# Entry
Amino acid sequence: MDITEKIAGIRAEMAKEELAAYIVSNTDPHNNELVAPRWRSRQWLSGVKGSAGTVVVTADWCGLWTDSRYYDAAEEALKGTGIELMRASDFDVPTIEEWIKSNLAEGSVIGFFGGDVNVEQGKKWAKSLEPAGYPINSDHDLVDRVWKDRPAEPAGELFLVPEEYAGKSITAKIALVRAELKKLKIDAHLLGRTDESCWLFNFRGTDTPELTTPYCYTLITPDEVRFFIDPAKLTDKAREIFAEASVKLEPYSAVSDAMKALPKTTKLLTVPAHTNLNLGKAAAHCIEIPGKAVVTHIKGVKNATEIKHTKEALLQDGVAMTKFFAWFYRTLDEGGEISELMVSRKLREFRSERPGFRHNSFEAIVGYAAHAALNHYSVDEDSDLKLERENVLLIDSGGNYLQGTTDTTRVIPLGEPTQEQKDDYTVVLRGFIDLMSAIFAEGATGAQLDAICRHNMWKVGRNFKHGTGHGVGFGLEVHEGPQNISARNTEKFVLGQLSTIEPGCYRSGKHGIRIENMVHTILHDENEFGRFFKFENMTWCPINVDLVEPSLLAQEHLDWLNEYNAGVIEKLSPHLEDNEVTWLTRECRPVKA
# Structure
């Protein structure tokens, strides 16, 4: 089926259910960031890839709402489909609810499937639309009716993480969670985020190549722990470990009945963003306790064992990337041809040779020239570009290792850089160093840290529309809460968290710049004014100096850059061949004012 046929199929099913509009997102029952192919409904319907985007279908119109990260990619993908691009990050573009109220008659029924849409989003739509006279119907999965060759639900086996890597036993983690629930006077807690169950039970998933968290739920009460998962995913060893920890195993599909069976007096904590609307309805009779995601906050603070192993993972990742860069330039110098897709595949090959590597932590972003200006560009056979000896190449990639999760972005020149490219690169580098070297008071929020990074960029008229950084899991999801670094984030940073710092600058149709390291929040000082924190660098990967315009950096920035690259040489050289050390030494040569 082509896109027009798919839309026609949805419209035919809408007519049967008397729906005036149907909303299709790319979400799964847990609202995971990386979803299995079965739930990539918006991508199937529109042809637009990426994590953000929602399609609205009416009888005579179809539109895709997405944010600025995907404007260029969406515009290209939607050509000839009849789907209008709604640029959601622009100030004058209506929200989905606003558009519906302006374009559809009062009394029109709005549909979406409550099994895939989370409670937070479903209630938001209902709160806006129903009082205005637009009833909601969340009962029908119209995509499932039309998508005849829809992929099956994934069924990979659990991968158990030894306690020597996790740092705490299952029973110790359960005790931590129960202690927090007791403090909050909560009777039951449903873990809707799949990574929370993974952390709690010291396992990872193999459901999809780049998703470490299998589809599962956990219900914790003072008396029992119930784990809902497809039995086929459990090895005999896994069953034995769960039995030892007194964890009751139940089928994944049984979670709804379990929620319905809870007593009405149950004080239940769920996370609305990671509980689908249908499951929320099953627990609607309980006493809803609003509050923080208990497990997310606990696992966000890494223990000493997790930090130690993450450092090892990032060291191995730096070795892999350096070996890749040496191969890359050698191949180009010898006249070999390289494309974006080849870069993505070769990166994985080099990572796969490192100890503990399991799979990529996300689909690598490899953008050459204008493609680098697409924040979340995803290369495939159709978009693949051959690299020329000009412009720049942006690589944002990472790996999931037994030792932890990595996420690194670097930009390298393929020819003589232009002054504009050097200026953009150096301005981003300066903002990057400003935050990497910042000292901040305890209680500082992601929004405050975001401003530290952007301050000097704003002075020279540069900005970027994505966040400055995000939390990172331990062998789990590469984007993890509770903290992130952005203008909207009010979460306070605490000791022990792993995060990224990744400012950028993007010129549509020309080039894109982003530099990213992972950091660990540690104590800097404590005095009569309180405690002060700073970031410990965790990433060791060369920062290119050919793109640096020294006149745009203060001496403190130059000192930081030179000390960092000297550290890269020191840490990575023992793991490299002689020719790779030679390349690395030149790449990391000192920059003078």
Summary: The radius of gyration is 25 Å. The chain has a mean pLDDT of 95. Residues 159-299 form a domain with the Creatine Amidinohydrolase; Chain A, domain 1 fold (CATH 3.40.350.10).
